[in-house]
Amino acid sequence: MENKSKYSACTSILIGRKASIDGTIMIGRNEDAKSAWPKHFVVRPKNYITNHFKSTDNEFEIDLPATSAKYTATPEWTDKFGVFEEDGINEFNVAMSATESAYSNIRVLASDPLVEAGITEEAMVTVVLPFIHSAREGVQRLGKIIEAHGTNESNGILFADNQEAWYIETVGGHYWAAQRIPDDCYAVVANQISIQEIDFADSDNFMTHPKLQQFVTENQLNPSPGTFNFRNIFGTHDASDAVYNTPRVWYGHRMFSASQMDDEQPESDTLPFLMKPDQLLSIDDAQNYLSSHFQGTQFDPLGSGNNSDKRKYRPISLAKTQESHVLQMNREPVNLHWLSLGVSAESVYVPFYAEINDTPLRYQRGKQQYNVNSEYWNYKLVGVLVDAHLDHFWKPMTDLQTQINTHLREMLKNADSELETNADSREAYLTDKSTEMAEYASTAYRNFARQLITESTDLSLLNFKTDANL
Fold it and tell me: What are the Cα distances from residue 65, in Å, to 46, 125, 139, 165?
């Protein structure tokens, strides 16, 4: 078996409650690592986590509290190389998504090297989410773990609850900083250190390692004394950033804040971390961003641009996306864990209520080889079949996505409205309704796959049209 790549090259979005159309807070991310590496979707019951964790990814281990909260998670199909639970919402209505891989510059790494046995992406959700009661507490818990145990990676981690969203970035082996997303702002992040100016006097909106300033001063790391731009001090600014990372941020700003872009270019290394949207953002906007591939520009790999432009930049949704999620908080009557398995551009986001007690069996199945009974492989199969004949199948697929998305939202609205009459069996009711929505989307995709296979039989290069006069 081939191991999962060391770093996941993801894309993230965070939306404050006053920047959203319905007052919800959203954090979302594409988990991008391998093109055939199934994810499962599970509910970890209360006290699922024991009082000690030992990683199978590296030598990291940590003692844990005696009790743990229930939470949703999307672990790997195997824990041989680590659990990689990645995203979830716990019973205290705290959401977490980990991680957005990033990179510290060589000056930082020379002063504070990565710790081989430190915490990594694979363990973060498992040792943090079950033990926190707020987004702010999540930042604090993870920060203390990094200070005490170190980390073997530079990462960005998303937290949210019903009041606020936070983004924390780790740099070097032990240092970190976090910023609260202003209520009227959003942020899109793409594999870079992104936090900019830090106000150390503003504890409501910033948290950091207690000795962060001292570390920077003692090691002469700040290229612009008199300011404290976290990105400039700790991040990278190389050619790979220009073609791999910043274009994805540029495209998010193009989607949501076009009137404010001025001369922003895809390869700019000064794109703002925080932006105000031109208009209020919906769950559809968050999902459309995470499913995008530079549509409407010459850089779309599926567009009509020349081959050089079409392959110039790394798109947001791509073949290596294992799953994509948007965790929607501060939502009435129940928060939602939206999950798209496989390539988000070729899949659909299914809403699961945060308070469910189980997930459909199809979401708990699937290994590295294709399995007809696995939900991950159901959505991946459609993508593979569409990719083989884009001209024939892309439009029918997007039509199906629109149909499914419309009906899912109708089902969700009806389920919301009937919740009060099912209050005595709330958890069971929410589980049943989530399962119904998942099964509707699953069945539609399975039927579509059958249609694609059938129609593909007449699209072989060995086909030949006989002259009607012969």
Answer: 12, 15, 17, 25
CB distance 122 to 236 below 8 Å: no
> What is the residue whose two structure tokens read 């007449």?
458
At how many degrees (to 10) do helices 375-388 and 426-456 cross? Answer: 30
Strand ranges in 69-213 using DSSP code E only, listed in sequence order? 71-73, 87-89, 95-102, 154-160, 165-171, 175-180, 186-189, 206-208
Catalytic residue set: 10
pTM of the model: 0.96
379 in Cβ contact with 77 (< 8 Å): no
Distances (CA, A) of 442 to 154, 209, 375, 377: 36, 45, 7, 11
Contacts (Cβ under 8 Å, ≥6 apart) of 170: 102, 146, 151, 153, 154, 155, 156, 157, 176
What are the pLDDT digits (tens) for 58-71? 999 999 999 999 99
Q: Return the half-sphere exposure (C-beta side, CA atoms, 13 A cut-off) of residue 283.
A: 23
Provide the CA 159 distance to its chain's centre, in angstroms.
12
Alpha-helical regions (H) of 53-130: 106-111, 121-128
Phi, psi of 71 (to 5 degrees): -160, 155
The upper half-sphere exposure of residue 161, i.e. CA atoms within 13 Å in the direction of its Cβ, equals: 16
Q: What is the pLDDT of residue 466?
A: 74
- The DSSP output letter for 430 is H
For residue 299, pLDDT beyond 90 = yes
Give the contacts of 366 (CB within 8 A, at least 6 positions apart). 38, 39, 40, 77, 374, 375, 376, 377
pLDDT for 470:
60
φ and ψ at residue 393, rounded to 5 degrees: -110, -15
389 φ, ψ (degrees, to nearest 5)? -145, 65
Q: What is the pLDDT of residues 178-188, one digit of tens each?
A: 999 999 999 99
CB 246 within 8 A of CB 267: yes
